[in-house]
Amino acid sequence: MTLSDRQAALYALFDQLSIPWTTHEHPPVFTVEEGADIKAALPGGHTKNLFLKDKDGQLVLISALGETQIPLKHLHREIGTKRLSFGRPDLMEETLGVTPGSVTLFALINDAETRVRVILDEGLFDHDIVNFHPLSNDATTAVPSDRLEDFVRATGHVAERLDFSAL
Predict the structure, then answer these.
(1) Residue 36 to residue 80: CA distance in whole angstroms
(2) What are phi and psi of 45, to 5 degrees?
(3) What are the CB-based long-range contacts (under 8 Å, 24+) for 32-36?
(4) Using one digit for the tens of pLDDT, what is the confidence trace for 41-89?
(5) Helix (H) or strand (E) holding 19
(6) What is the pTM for the complete model shown?
(7) Which residues contact 123 (CB under 8 A, 6 or more apart)?
């Protein structure tokens, strides 16, 4: 399936779930910092997404506000895993169907085997609208934060919420 087919499936799922969405195309961005100008022009909370793996092979996707500090050295104790490190690009592509720079909560649509554990930053819910890449880093899709868990459930996953600001 091509990227455009997968994006069409993502938008179709939003429509099926009656989740309003808006996508803005822009030049590719690979880091939170690179997207600063784009984000300044778009309303809502802007996100970063980390694809992690623990020493036992458990996969974790963290979706958080871009400015959220995520204490990777100690996070494993908070979420009950072994020490965490960034997942390899080939493993990310195998499980989430995206490449580095395009990691997004929306990639859960590609994890049919539900191998990835999902953790959402409580800070996301402080914004009415949140922005994620729609499976590629050359666009940003805005959705209501109060519908994130509906999307996660529709992909067969369970969303865990964690207040990173309290860690």
Answers:
(1) 33
(2) -80, 140
(3) 32/66, 35/140
(4) 899 999 999 999 999 999 999 999 999 999 999 999 999 999 999 999 9
(5) none
(6) 0.95
(7) 45, 64, 65, 68, 163, 164, 165
Choose between 1 and 127: higher pLDDT: 127
- β-bridge mates for residue 152, sequence order: none
| CATH number of the structural domain 3-166 | 3.90.960.10
Give the pairing of strands 116-121 and 159-162.
Answer: parallel
Which tokens belong to 163? 């207040």
Question: What would the two tokens of residue 35 be?
Answer: 């997207």
Residue 162, classed as helix, strand or coil, is strand
Domain boundaries, the chain: 3-166
Going 21 to 23 to 29 to 32, the CA torsion angle's sign is negative
Q: Which of 82, 81, 55, 71 is nearest to 121 (CA)?
A: 71
